[in-house]
């Protein structure tokens, strides 16, 4: 059976796996974005706190994904839980780092002007600082998403959802007639999803970033 015949015969399962893969990455990115931006907001004013946040999240990223999921299995079991925890943790670094950089890069004169018209600290954060810091934050989200697309494939090791199941099945049956087709289908599916997500982020950037800031 050639690759195209394999896709035709397995398209329903592949679409299901692709949806689960995209859904897992999307949901984990939402959680990682909320946590990462919150950490950035809490630490960007302090040099040591910002460095601690960046160092901690970068240390998490050095743990091999297979080892991370393996360590989580005895704690939370198999399935979705270790996948969600691992992906969320791995997605933090680019978002935290870019949130800190973006917030520190806001022109102090703009903050002073906001103070001058009576804005509270919370109002300045949401109406001045975060909107200006949004472009680097969005870049961090894009980088995290691309990383998680690949890392999510390892979730199949813990019976997690996604296209990694197709890849692991192919690797587990090396020598069979469809082994290469399975690995190739899973890999190409992840690449396509990564490109679609990145295109969506480009569109979001065009819709949410004012032209002057983009320039």
TrEMBL record:
Family recorded in the similarity comment: Belongs to the binding-protein-dependent transport system permease family.
Topological relation to the membrane, as annotated: Multi-pass membrane protein
A family per Pfam: BPD_transp_1
Signal peptide: none
Protein name: ABC transporter permease
Annotated PANTHER family: GLYCINE BETAINE/L-PROLINE TRANSPORT SYSTEM PERMEASE PROTEIN PROW (PTHR30177), OSMOPROTECTANT IMPORT PERMEASE PROTEIN OSMW (PTHR30177:SF4)
Protein location: Cell membrane; Membrane
UniProt KW keywords: Membrane, Transmembrane, Transmembrane helix, Transport
Domain ABC transmembrane type-1: 18-201
Bilayer-crossing regions: 24-44, 65-93, 183-204
Gene3D superfamilies, A to Z: MetI-like
């Amino acid at each position: 059976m050639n690759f195209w015949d394999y896709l035709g015969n397995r398209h329903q399962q592949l679409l299901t796996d692709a949806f689960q893969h995209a859904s897992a990455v999307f949901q984990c990115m939402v959680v990682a974005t909320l946590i990462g931006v919150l950490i950035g907001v809490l630490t960007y004013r302090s040099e040591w706190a910002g460095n601690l946040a960046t160092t901690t999240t970068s240390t998490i990223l050095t743990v091999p994904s297979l080892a991370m999921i393996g360590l989580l299995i005895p704690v939370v079991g198999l399935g979705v839980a270790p996948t969600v925890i691992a992906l969320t943790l791995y997605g933090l670094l680019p978002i935290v780092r870019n949130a800190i950089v973006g917030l520190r890069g806001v022109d102090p004169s703009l903050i002073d002007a906001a103070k001058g018209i009576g804005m509270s600290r919370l109002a300045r954060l949401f109406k001045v600082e975060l909107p200006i810091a949004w472009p680097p934050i969005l870049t961090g989200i894009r980088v995290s998403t691309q990383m998680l697309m690949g890392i999510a494939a390892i979730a199949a090791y813990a019976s997690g959802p996604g296209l990694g199941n197709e890849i692991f099945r192919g690797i587990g049956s090396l020598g069979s007639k469809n082994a290469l087709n399975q690995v190739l289908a899973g890999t190409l599916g992840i690449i396509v999803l990564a490109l679609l997500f990145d295109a969506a982020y480009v569109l979001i950037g065009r819709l949410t970033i004012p032209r002057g800031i983009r320039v």
